[in-house]
Amino acid sequence: MAKPAPATAGPAKASPAKASPAKASPARPAAGAATRKPAGRVVPPRPLVSVAEPVPLPRSVRTAVWLMYAGAALAALDLIATLATIGSARGELHRANPHWTAAQLTTGVHSFILSIVVSWAITIGVWLIMARTNQAGRAWARNVATVLSALSTLSFILYLHEPGSLVGKLLLVPMWLVGVAAATLLWRRESTAYIRAGVL
């Protein structure tokens, strides 16, 4: 009778599995490290629209501007002359208003001086503004200068028939001529071309 094969004690040993070789992972850049590109040459952008050359100031406009500055100087001289002869204003007010008291005459003289200073200061300012704006080639400035010249002609004619100092009237003659000459020069052909060139 055959003997059974002896049983092996304990569990059977499994043959060790062969380890597969590990794949090398690609190296990653460190955190926060940015890839730097070589700095290229900066090319400035080209202007899309060509810049127009400034239009030269014509002689007619230049002369008109200088005449306006002369008008401002004449207005300042007229103010000084009026203030220098202000002493006669009290006597004229007294002859025109004989019933006024001394206090009323003093108040009237002060009001007259204030009105003279304010009106001539405004006149000087208008002369200077007209000179600067017409030099810049503003079309509206030429129109305003023309209207002011017409108004000054009318007021000059009316002032000649009113009582006043002879010095003040004599100073108004060159001021009136300066305004008319400046307005006439602004309407010359070269002046019109200069103003139209500056209009966008």
Structure, explained:
By secondary structure, the chain is an all-alpha fold. Helix content is 61%, strand content 0%. The relative contact order is 0.14.
Query: What does the largest sheet look like?
Result: none
Sheet/helix structural class: mainly alpha
Helix and strand pattern: HHHHHH
**Regions with little confidence, pLDDT below 50 for 5+ residues:** 1-24
State which percent range the strand residues make up.
under 5%
- Share of helical residues: 55-70%
Number of helices: 6
Number of DSSP-assigned strands: 0
| End-to-end CA span | 129 Å
Shape label: elongated
Average pLDDT works out at: 77
Q: Rg to the nearest angstrom?
A: 47 Å
Short description:
The chain is mainly alpha-helical and 200 residues long.
Core attributes:
200 residues; disordered N terminus; mainly alpha; 0% strand; 6 helices; single chain
Write the layout of secondary structure elements.
Layout (H helix, E strand, L loop, with lengths): L58 H26 L2 H10 L5 H34 L3 H22 L5 H20 L3 H10 L2
Helix pairs in contact: 1-3, 1-5, 2-3, 4-5
